Structures are given as structure tokens and as C-alpha cells.
Amino acid sequence: SQTIHQWPATLVQPVGSPLSLECTVEGTSNPNLYWYRQAAGRGLQLLFYSVGIGQISSEVPQNLSASRPQDRQFILSSKKLLLSDSGFYLCAWSADENQPQHFGDGTRLSIL
Amino acid sequence: GESVGLHLPTLSVQEGDNSIINCAYSNSASDYFIWYKQESGKGPQFIIDIRSNMDKRQGQRVTVLLNKTVKHLSLQIAATQPGDSAVYFCAEETSNTGKLIFGQGTTLQVKP
Questions:
Q1: Which are the contacts of B23, defined by CB distance < 8 A and separation ≥ 6?
Q2: Cβ atoms < 10 Å from Cβ of A102
Q3: What is the rounded CA–CA span in Å between residue A77 and residue A55?
Q4: Chain centre distance of CA A97
């Protein structure tokens, strides 16, 4: 069966520090991969999605970037974190378009 | 612009009763819809999906209804249990884009 892993579960970082969040998927090949951010008490906002290695689409202008160095690895990064980058970050995968997206358990990022 | 919204932010039901969570969507081109359940501190969990060529789909204790005429989606949970307490999100996808647009969520509270 397919599984998705995100780490770390929680992270506290100072303003201006770099960021690297990792997401890996097991049990499938060539998945679509997604990064979302969820503000407290709100829905999910799509940040990036990828249909293959090295293929990244950005949905909103922001201080973050994404990379897909391997088929089942998706990384969310920042060179310098802002206070506004605080939030709950979720990674998801799907087998294809018009298929369910399956989510990891997220990383809660707090910027001080 | 596109939006997916929920009629009520919080729904409180008695254990054993049936629950109905509603969702309105604005993009008539959306052709794939998903309901997710999110428990505190976790990622959204897939419940059930429906495509635009269907009006109704049933799962275990859950039923999704789609009314394309009024762009309305609902999730019915039979014999609601305390474990059903969570935030429920509807999401829509348009024409094989692979991008989900999420509503803001409805909190379901189950009273024992």
C-alpha cells in the first residue's frame, strides 16, 4: 500500500533562517505531488504541484520554493523565512488528475 | 473567481443521529469532487469522491450527493459516532487540472 511521510512534525525557526521540509511517498511510482499551506481554522491553499522529476508549478507568489529531485521526494524550501511563513504545511500525492489526493500529517511551522 | 464554500461553520449533532454537511461551489466546469475529514493536528483524510457524471455515491456510513443544477454538494453521515467529530472539507477539481480548491471547512461536533 502507498504511504506518505512528512518531517519534521513541528519546527520552530527564527526569522531570516532557511527552511527545508521533506516529503516522501512509498508504494507508487510517478505520483503527482503537492505542497499546501493551511492557516488556523481555514481551508488548504495550494502552493506547488509537480507531475514529474524537476517539474514544478507554483500557484502563488511567495517566499518559498519547491524541488523534486527524485520521483517520490518533494522538498519545500526557503532561503530566508518571514513571520508570515508560519503555518501548517501539508504534502499530498495522487496517482493522476481527477484522482484523490492523499495527505501526510503535516509540519507545523512557527517563526519567531 | 472560483470558490468552494460551506453553508455552516459548525454542526452539532447527537450521537446516533444522521449528519448532513453542505457545500456550495461556484465553478460549473468542476467535474470532480472530494470530501475530506481532518482531525486536530493531522492531515486531511479522504472520505469519498464523486464525479460530475453521477448524482449520488455511497460508502460505508457516508453518502455524497451532487446537484449540478444548483452547484451543491453534500455529505451525509449515518448514525454519527463520537469518532466522526472533526473538520470536514469539500474540494473541487476542474477538468483534469490536478488542482483541488478547498472550502473553508465545517466542524462536526458529536454529543454523547
A1: B4, B5, B6, B7, B72, B73, B74, B75, B90, B103
A2: 22
A3: 15
A4: 18
User: What is the per-residue pLDDT across A36-76, written as a single tens digit (0 to 9) for each?
Assistant: 999 877 789 999 999 999 999 998 877 899 999 999 999 99
Q: B73: part of which helix (H) or strand (E)?
A: strand B72-77
- Amino acid identity at A112: L
- Which of B42, B46, B96 is facing A98, going by the closest CB pair? B96
Q: Which residues contact A83 (CB under 8 A, 6 or more apart)?
A: A15, A111
CB pairs under 8 A between A and B: 58
C-alpha to C-alpha distances, B28 to A74, B46, B92, B108, nearest whole angstrom = 32, 23, 10, 27
Q: What is the pLDDT of residues B81-95, one digit of tens each?
A: 999 999 999 999 987
CB contact under 8 A, A103 and B43: yes
3-state secondary structure of A62: coil
